[in-house]
Amino acid sequence: MDGEPMYIQMVTALVLQLIQCVVHLPSSEKDSNSEEDSNKKVDQDVVITNSYETAMRTAQNFLSIFLKKCGSKQGEEDYRPLFENFVQDLLSTVNKPEWPAAELLLSLLGRLLVHQFSNKSTEMALRVASLDYLGTVAARLRKDAVTSKMDQGSIERILKQVSGGEDEIQQLQKALLDYLDENTETDPSLVFSRKFYIAQWFRDTTLETEKAMKSQKDEESSEGTHHAKEIETTGQIMHRAENRKKFLRSIIKTTPSQFSTLKMNSDTVDYDDACLIVRYLASMRPFAQSFDIYLTQILRVLGENAIAVRTKAMKCLSEVVAVDPSILARLDMQRGVHGRLMDNSTSVREAAVELLGRFVLCRPQLAEQYYDMLIERILDTGISVRKRVIKILRDICIEQPTFPKITEMCVKMIRRVNDEEGIKKLVNETFQKLWFTPTPHSDKEAMTRKILNITDVVAACRDTGYDWFEQLLQNLLKSEEDSSYKPVKKACTQLVDNLVEHILKYEESLADSDNKGVNSGRLVACITTLFLFSKIRPQLMVKHAMTMQPYLTTKCSTQNDFMVICNVAKILELVVPLMEHPSETFLATIEEDLMKLIIKYGMTVVQHCVSCLGAVVNKVTQNFKFVWACFNRYYGAISKLKSQHQEDPNNTSLLTNKPALLRSLFTVGALCRHFDFDLEDFKGNSKVNIKDKVLELLMYFTKHSDEEVQTKAIIGLGFAFIQHPSLMFEQEVKNLYNNILSDKNSSVNLKIQVLKNLQTYLQEEDTRMQQADRDWKKVAKQEDLKEMGDVSSGMSSSIMQLYLKQVLEAFFHTQSSVRHFALNVIALTLNQGLIHPVQCVPYLIAMGTDPEPAMRNKADQQLVEIDKKYAGFIHMKAVAGMKMSYQVQQAINTCLKDPVRGFRQDESSSALCSHLYSMIRGNRQHRRAFLISLLNLFDDTAKTEVTMLLYIADNLACFPYQTQEEPLFIMHHIDITLSVSGSNLLQSFKESMVKDKKKERKSSPSKENESSESEEEVSRPRKSRKRVDSDSDSDSEGDINSVMKCLPENSAPLIEFANVSQGILLLLMLKQHLKNLCGFSDSKIQKYSPSESAKVYDKAINRKTGVHFHPKQTLDFLRSDMANSKITEEVKRSIVKQYLDFKLLMEHLDPDEEEEEGEVSASTNARNKAITSLLGGGSPKNNTAAETEDDESDGEDRGGGTSGVRRRRSQRISQRIT
């Protein structure tokens, strides 16, 4: 054959040949007369059609048997690879002139595959395989459809080349047959191909005629050619069909040998044209038009329960989109893909994200449409999904640098820099490629784009902090420390130089324009970026320090101007000490500028300028007199104001001097933080102890009546303690801090300030330790074994031990800001290892239930860290943590009428302590111990308050259980607790009655009788128990009345009963809830045994949706505050009714084991009635969901006769609460 060589397996070639051989055409007999001829004509038509249909049946049988073998492996033979190759071969041979059967096989295969994967009873392996093959076929179909649009020109060219006839299709058919004829000599098998085509076209024409006759007024031309635009009448169709048949008959009659002598050689088409003709003719057949059907079927299974099917369907769509991205513009595709981005299986979500990624890159103009869906998934819980999203975003950034959302994308990606290792690595690589790869000097445009991109990202993160940038730079620079080629370092130098250049240009452009304050946001972003570089590599900025200094004199009018000054001060603080021989005037100018700023501006500026001055004076100029003068000025002002206040606290001049006092308190503190004034350099020979004097002054003002003054004094103290931590051990300081933290009435601002002071102290300590560590590394090589001066760590540890309890108690504050700073302090303390973590665990568990996600996550993160280092600590304190979380929720709960609930009241309704449970659930032993200790709180002896029990029951109802074992274990233990606690409860209630009965014995013997009878009944074996039929209302009414008469005068036991019974009611309710949520049947719960191997109950839970935990009785009990309200007759009656229901339930707690088939156990009925009555529900409904669950899980017992009875019974028993 001409064209490029194509290789297929022998077996495929054989199958195709065999199917093509099935077709027989009637032989041509010349000597027949005309009448017979017309009859024979009809017969021959039937022969041709039947012979083609036989070929179709043969193909169908072969395919269905072959496909069936592709299910699960049978023994050693695996047919799947064979089938895959077979499908690939069919796709290679389709539309090739010599293999007409390939198209037929694919067409049949498509139908078969759709049938296989849509049928839920097909085995899973076969369903997934069928989907996979169909995806391949659909993608190929789409590809052909896209390319055949381009074929039109070539077809017209061929038509011109082939002579004669009006009917184009006929001309093309003739050209193809000529081609086959001509090549028969080289390839004899083409005779069969030729016969197959003739039979196929003949049958198509026959079908077309039938169709036309059926629908007389066919609206559309059923011809399907691209040319026949006008609508044709049935007559025309019939006429044309007849002509075609005639043409085909004439061809059959001519033998190939005659044919070869007739034809003109110049007319024949070559191989490529023959392929084009085949493809063009095939485009009118059903297979070419079946793409829509396949796509719809694939989209349909996206909603299936089986994860494997959903994942595979998503991958199939991916293949199709890769061939033709415009498919994604279809509405049904958008809906399908969007739904799967929220799928609960990671693999499905990943497949959906991958599909979107392919599409967004091929069709940038549609990227915006899907952008929001994509970007959400960067916070996906599945690592593979997050990775996939980052890769797609990276490709967009690199390939479409002008995309409008680039900044946002970078921000989102960079925030994942502390994610797990794989993602961290990916983010580092992404930004190394985007930002930290040197740009050629000639490419100014790329450089400017890079700078704008970085500064945009920095500006966008203004509110969320820049830790990520520092982290990223550190990671990248660290990775190339030891290599000789340092591209990141080179890129950083380039970026810094260009940023400075950018700022200068920007200033010039501003100077030229009249509008001075325009867009100073860009300037702030540039300077902030420079600061971030200086923070990690201050050497980069050394040569630009002189350029930065003039910005200290910026006139401050807007927030942005202050940002510029603060950032420049921070840059100079890091850079000036590294300069070699800076000029005197430069240093003097800096000192003066800073001093002016300290005197003139607000807190933030003062803080940064004093810090900068500290670096310049302490490390470079040693100009101590200059600072001493400044200190004395403010110190003197405070002393003066103090003496005025001592003389007369109501002096009016104090009010006018308040701003001066506030500034002085703050500035003295700030100066003490950066300069140790007790050095001789400052105070000379004076014997005065400056730090004690400052402490005394500041302490005086912490007792001031004005809260603002107190706050500033505490800020000042905080600063001073950073230079002299030992002052925190002073008794008066301890009292001040602890009182503010533990006193319920002290102001929120003061609490926050004390916590902030501790936070700042710990942060400074951390920085100091890291610096000491770096210095030690430098000298460690020279010194043999130097004692590391780790005094400071011991100091901070002792300080934190002092204040730890009060800081932890601050978790129980109603204000979220107080909780926020307390959590920060604890996190820093734990990270530095200053205390034993176990004491914080319960508090962190409690903070994990905070309504604010940021705080929840931070607390959860701390727990994860602790769990990594010290396994078992979390489990050890889990129950204490749950109780504490209840206290936190109580503190936060603003609406005091409503009891605290244990789940989030949003659409997720997840348990507040779900993170704690998910940490413990992995270890079976720990999980069971935890669940049992929670259930033990419901015991009547535990005396837990009802509100807390409700909170714990809520959590137990909503925990993220994953296997059947977890809820079954809880239900099993609820049954045990019920039987013990329930009996105790009834006993104590009876005892309170019995005393009373003695008085009344004479008057009413029947009641005594009833009581003893019921006691006997409980003690008798169940077989001989005879139930008094309590179904009739009058009867139970009588019971209530008889018990009412026996009640003691004092209603305390009644209240006690109502209170204690809430625990048992909650357990009953919880059991019902779990049963409905997981669709368990009674028999399944009964058969469960905790000692069985874990594997039996390792199946995943199939959660029902819309099942909510609502213990109505307990909520009503709490809302009506029954425990403290007066007992009315009605309340008494309801408690007595509850007692009787309870008694009934206890009598029938265990379902009868043996019973006749078809009889509903009386005991079961009674028990269900009692439960329903107790829980205030309607009549029990049959829980049909339970049945299916049970059928699946208990298939193994179906053999036995009793199990069938039991299953039917469980079906009747099992019920749902309304």
Automatic annotation (TrEMBL):
**Where does the protein principally reside?**
nucleus
Basic and acidic residues bias spans: 994-1010
Q: Which Gene3D superfamilies match?
A: Leucine-rich Repeat Variant (1.25.10.10)
InterPro entries, A to Z: ARM-like, ARM-type_fold, Cohesin_HEAT, Nipped-B_C, Scc2/Nipped-B
- The UniProt record lists the Sister chromatid cohesion C-terminal domain at 796-976
Please list the residue ranges that the record marks as compositionally biased, kind Polar residues. 1161-1171
Q: Which domain of life is it from?
A: Eukaryota
CDD domains from the UniProt entry: SCC2
Q: Where does this one sit in the cell? A: Nucleus
Signal peptide positions (record) = 1-24
- Please give the residue ranges the record annotates as the region Disordered: 212-231, 994-1043, 1151-1218
* Record family assignment: Belongs to the SCC2/Nipped-B family.
Please state what the protein is called. Answer: Nipped-B protein
- What species does this protein belong to? Galeopterus variegatus (Malayan flying lemur)
